[in-house]
Amino acid sequence: MAELEGSIQYLPGMGPKRAALLQKELGIESLSDLIHLYPYRYIDRSGIYPIAQVSGESMVQIRAKVVSRNLYAKGGEVIDPGKGVSELRRASRLSVIVEDSSARMEMVFFKGIKWNWERLSPGSEYIFFGKVSEFNGRLNMVHPEVDKPQESSAPSGLSGVYPSTEALKNSGVTTKLMSRAVGAALSLCLREVQETLPDYVLRDNSLVPLRKALYDIHFPKDNACLEQARYRLKFEELFLLQLSLLKQKYVRSRGSKGFLMPRVGEDFNACYKALPYSLTSAQQRVIKEIRADLMSGKQMNRLLQGDVGSGKTLVAVLCCLLAKGNGYQSCILAPTEVLAHQHFVSVSKFLAPTGSRCALLTGSSSGPERREALAGILDGSIDILIGTHALLEDCVVWKNLGLAIVDEQHRFGVEQRSKLWKKNSIAPHILVMTATPIPRTLAMTLYGDLDVSVIDELPPGRKPVRTICIDESRKEAMYKFIREQIAAGRQAFVVYPLIFESEKLDIKNLEQGYEDIVAAFPLPDYKVAIVHGQQSNEQKSFNMEAFVAGRADILVSTTVIEVGVDVPNASVMVIMSAQRFGLSQLHQLRGRVGRGAEEAWCILVKDQKTGKEAQSRLDLMCSTQDGFELSEQDLRMRGPGDLEGTAQSGLPIRLSIASLSKDSAILSRARDYASKVLERDPEISSAENYPLRRELQKDKFKIEDFSRIS
Ligand code: ADP
Ligand code: MG
Q: 408 and 334 share a domain?
C-alpha cells in the first residue's frame, strides 16, 4: 500500500509546485488518485498525415523537417537573434516553417520560444502533433507537441487527454506531462492495486481485471482494449453504487417495523364514491402499490413521480384516508405557504363527504388557529395536518402520526425531513411526491434504495398546451392576444426569471416588468396582481388569492408560482426571458395552465441574446409536452456532470467515469446484477465477497444521509 499512497510530487516533470496545484485544482494527491484520474477523450496518434492532406480544425500528427524560422516582437517587427540573448527575450512569437514530401506548414509558438528556437534548427526532423487551424488562408499549428521521431516516448496509438484547468495549463501541466507522470505512477504502483470485484463477478459479467483496466484506460493499445477497460470501470462504479443503495434498502426493510394498516375504512370509500370522475388507471395502480406497503408491516419509503396535473393530490388524500381507516393521523408537507394553502383548500373539498378533518399550519397561522391545530393533533380530532416547515417544530406533538407525505421533495432538505422522523418512536410511512420527472437512469441511482411509483397518465380531457416561442420585439402582438383571452373570460400568468444574484435587483427587474404589463393593461379595464419572494406572507396570499378567485386578470410573478398552484381558469402562461430557464423549470411553469377544459397557451419570450443551447431548449419545449422526455433530454443536453454538480440533483456521490445519461444500459445491468448478489448474500458477508465488503466501507459509499429520505 505504501506506493499507492505516495505523493505525486516525485514523478517525472512534477515537483512540489505542480503537485500542490494538482491537489488544489483536481484533488489529486497520491499516486492512487492519479491513476484513477481517467482521460476524458483520446486522440488517435497511430497515423502520420502528409501535410497536403491536412485540413483545418482537426487534430493530426505530421512528420516534417524544419525549413526556416523567424522571431517576431510584439508589433510584428522581425528580430535578429544573432544580436544576442536579450534580443531573443524580446520575441513574442516564433514561426517555424516545416515541410514533408507533400507540402509546407507553419508552426507557431507564443511560449517556450527560447527552447523551441534552440531545438527546431533548420534541417532537423520532428513529429508534430496538434490542432490545425487556418490563419490568413494558410494552415498552421499553434503550440504543437514536438517529439523526435526516434524518441521512444513519442506516443503512438491512442493517447489520452486528461482533465485540466486554466491554472494547470499555465503552470505547464500539459497532457504530455500528465501522461508521463501517469505512466511512471503505474509502473511504481500498479502491482499494489487490489482487485475490487470477486472473481465470479468478473466472470459473470465478462470484465477484465482491474489492473489491466487501469493500465488500458491510460494507455490503450487499440480501441477494443479501451472499450473493455472502460466497460469494466463503469460497470464497477455503477455496480458498487447500486449494491450499497440496495443493501441499505434491504437492511431497512428488514430492520424497520412499520405501522400495520390492513383496513380500507369508511372515509376512503366515502371520498372515493363522491368523486366526480373516476381514477385514472395510473392512479389506481399507484394506490394499490401503496396499499401493499401499508399492509406489509414494514415502513414504506416510496417516491411518487407524476407529471404536473397528473393528480397526485388525490392520491395523497386517499392515502391519508387509508391511514385514518386504521386509526392513524397523516401530514402533508408542502414547500411553500401558497402551496400549503392550496393543498388545504383542495384536501378540504375531498374530505367533505367523509368524517375526516384536516387543518392548516404554517408560519403565518394566527395564534388561535395554531392553538386549535396543535390541540387537535394532540387529541386526535384532526386527522390530516397540512403545512410547511412549521409542522416540523417541536411544539407539534402527534397523537399517532402514521403517514407523512412530502410534496415536491426537491425543495426539502434531508435534515428537515428527518426531523419529522425523529419525533416518532416508530417511523411513519413516508411518501415523497415529486412533479419533476426524473429520468429512469437517474431515479435508479438517486433513489436506489426507495420504491418508486409513477403516475404516467394524465386525467382524460386535458388539452395540450400550445407552446410557441417569440422574440421580445413581438411583445405588442402578444399583449393583443392576451387582451383577447381576458375578454373571453380567461386569465394569464406572466413570469419573470430570477436574474441577478441579489434579490433586490431581481425584484427591481420584476417591478419593471410589472410596470410594463400595467402600462399595457391599464385600470380600470384590467387588474394585474404581483407576487414575489420579498413580500410578506399576508401580501403574497392576498395577491395570490386575488388571482385564484378571478379578481385579477394577470398575475405577474417570479417563479414562486412554479410549484403546484392550481388556477383552472388561467389559459395563458407567458415566460419572459425564457432562455434563462432550465427545461424542467419551463415545464413546471407550463404545467400551471391547461388544467381547465379550455385551450391553453404557453408563450416563451426570448431576448436577442439567446444562445444556441438555450434556443434548443426552447425548441424542445415547443416540440413536446412529455415531462419524462424533456427530462431525459435535459440530462442529455446538460450532461450529468452539470446535473450531478447541482444541489438539485442531490446525487450522493461523484461518478468518476460512468455517465448517467449515456450509460443507462450498463446501469440497468449493474443494478440487476447487484440485486442478484444481494439475494445470495444479503449481508455481503461471505468470504468470496470480501472485496465488495471492503469497497463498500469506503467513504464514497457512506451515503446514508442521502438515501434516508425520512
Ligand atoms: P398534481 O399531480 O400536479 O399535483 P393535481 O393533484 O393538482 O395534480 O391534479 C390536477 C387536477 O386534476 C386537479 O384539479 C384534480 O382535481 C384533477 N384530477 C385528479 N385526478 C383526476 C382524475 N382521475 N380525473 C379527472 N381529474 C382529476
Ligand atoms: Mg400538486
A: yes
Close Cβ partners of 666 (under 8 Å, ≥ 6 residues apart): 231, 234, 235, 238, 658
Distance of CA 30 to the CA centre of its chain: 29
Residue nearest to atom 18 of ligand 1 (CA): 311
Centre of ligand 2 to C-alpha 346, Å, is: 10
Q: What is the pLDDT of residues 525-576, one digit of tens each?
A: 999 999 887 788 788 888 888 998 899 999 998 876 655 567 889 999 999 9
- 122-164: pLDDT as tens digits: 999 998 988 888 877 788 999 898 888 765 454 567 888 888 8
Q: Helix count (H) and strand count (E) of the chain?
A: 25, 22
Specify whether 387 is located in the same domain as 530.
no
In contact, 21 and 13? CB cutoff 8 Å: no
| SS3 per-residue string spanning 188-213 | HHHHHCCCCCCHHHHHHCCCCCHHHH
Closest CA to 575 of 549, 606, 600: 606
Which pTM value belongs to this model?
0.66
Domain that holds residue 343: 279-296+310-434
**Stated length of the chain:** 710
With beta carbons less than 8 A apart as the criterion, state whether 649 and 705 touch: no
What one-character DSSP code corresponds to residue 53?
A: G
Does residue 525 sit in the same domain as residue 607? yes
For residue 308, how far is its CA from the centre of ligand 1 (angstroms)?
A: 9
CATH number at residue 538: 3.40.50.300
∠ CA 616-619-620, rounded to 5°: 85
